[in-house]
Amino acid sequence: MIPTIASSRFFRFSYIFYVACFFIFLMAPLVVVAVFSFNDSMFPSLPWNGGTLDWYFNDTEPKLGIFHDSELLESIWTSVSIAIATTIASLALATCNAFLFEREQFPGKNLLYILMLTPLVIPGVILGVSILVFSSSIANWVEMQFGYDIEALRPGLTLVIIGQFAFITTISTLVISARLRKFDSTLEEAAMNLGANRMTAIATVTLPYLKPALIGAGIVSFLMSFENFNTTLMLVGSDAPLTIAMFDRLKEGSTPVLNAVSVILMTGSACLALLSLFVQRKEA
Amino acid sequence: MSPAHSASLSSTSKIGLWLLLAPILLWLSLLIILPHVDMVLISLQERISSRNYSFSVSNYTAFFTEPLYWNTFVRTAVMSIIATALTLLIAFPISYYIAKMLTGRLKTALFVLCLIPFWVSELVRTYGWMIILRETGLISTFLQWAGLADQPIEMLYNDAAIMVGLIYTSMLFMVVPLVSTLDSLDNSLIEAGYDLGGNSWNVLKDIIIPHAMPGIVSGCIVVFMLTLGNYLTPTLLGGKDSLWFTEQIYTQFITRFNWEQGAAFGMLLLFLSSLIVWAGLKLSKQSFSKVMS
């Protein structure tokens, strides 16, 4: 079952056929979504009524294109703001964590490492509701004691950012730690021998070395935040991020404007994915 | 190095240690540990009247006495296990093909091709399946065109549709760990297996699968976790009667505003997923921190 071992013609052909079917299965939904964004029909389904760009550029109801759909455009902006905030916060903490786990020795390190990994095995919905419950408990207590309502602890954008930050940090930590592990720490010592203090050595030698991992972790964090549904669903207030806005429309049975949004999303993710591949390629 | 100097160095590194420890401790305690503790406490409360609560396990007894809750829970677990097994069965030959049968550019290209759908949001992927499977969708229209059906067929809103969606959504998390473990298997071991008289089945069972075990386990754990906690796919592809447990949690929290019951459900789901992850690790003798990073 490796190329150097002879196998029957029939076996090889059926294997290749299987692999081909798999990739059709993998690509079909994406291709279908993209193609139907150009269908001149009120519904994202057959029959095919000819091509149109209305779902992108038309400015009147009922065929409102994405570039004129203010509700969806606003939700895209909401998602971008959430993703930027989440990415910055999780990168900062993840970098600290990477230094902590790769450089320091302290009692309880293993336990802390396992705790750091737990967000990976907590279902998103549960992480969301637990943060919802806890933040409301605090908000209710403060309101009872001081008669002041902390708006940020009620469902809304801040809570969404906090919820996403809670688990995206783990993923960023793993990415940055992996790179820091490969760092030759004698370089840092050399910088210190040449008169740099520890902070300067880290800032001028170690952080530039970590840059590809920081960019990679940043892109992954941004995309994970942008796409997140489960945790966000539980914490969302009146401003809906894109995934939630699209979900609400999908339940009502929407027009192909959703296909047009999806195509834009695919293009955006593809660009970011290529960028991250490029960054990793360059450093490798 | 003078004693004074070394003392100052160790004290700065101690401060440094605490500076690095403080953020992670705050993060873990405020966003992970305390919220779950609070959820346990809330799940053990019963509302007697407005703003008046007492300790009670009634939220848990409600779960065991109401067949709908209990059935949904078991159903979610069983469907997740089936979805995990099917994902493994489908992904293994693909991963093997990429890792062992291909080399060079083609190998990288196919591997990257596997990743592409997952850079796209889960919502878009599920939406694609809705367009394919719905009554006026591709498959139904194709079947009519080919004369295999004389009226539109609704393929959404059943368990098979949910299963397709779940497997599709999980594929990446199985393929990536499998490819990386299979990649590290030395081809000469496979050749040796054949040289010693083994057939393909022996080689697969005694050499390839044991070597791939860490990848199989980590893939299965992640896929199972994500499936069990999935909300979007069962809701959209399964319709109103998808009976998924995360949906029950959502209903209790957001629709009915019965947080006590919802918290109890959340804890039960967390307990189930932890139990199965733990059992998987024990059975395969893998360690959590190794599998997850």
UniProtKB/TrEMBL annotation, chain A:
Residues 76-276 form the ABC transmembrane type-1 domain. It is found in: Cell inner membrane; Cell membrane. CDD domains: TM_PBP2. It comes from the Bacteria. Pfam families: BPD_transp_1. It is a multi-pass membrane protein. Keywords: Cell inner membrane, Cell membrane, Membrane, Transmembrane, Transmembrane helix, Transport. The chain crosses the membrane at residues 15-38, 76-100, 112-139, 159-180, 201-224, 257-279. Belongs to the binding-protein-dependent transport system permease family. PANTHER family: INNER MEMBRANE ABC TRANSPORTER PERMEASE PROTEIN YDCV. This is ABC transporter permease. It comes from Alkalimarinus alittae.
TrEMBL record, chain B:
The keyword DNA-binding does not apply. SUPFAM superfamilies: MetI-like. Keywords: Cell membrane, Membrane, Transmembrane, Transmembrane helix, Transport. CDD domains: TM_PBP2 (cd06261). Its main location: membrane. It is a multi-pass membrane protein. Belongs to the binding-protein-dependent transport system permease family. CysTW subfamily. This is ABC transporter permease. It comes from Alkalimarinus alittae. The lineage of its organism: Bacteria, Pseudomonadati, Pseudomonadota, Gammaproteobacteria, Alteromonadales.
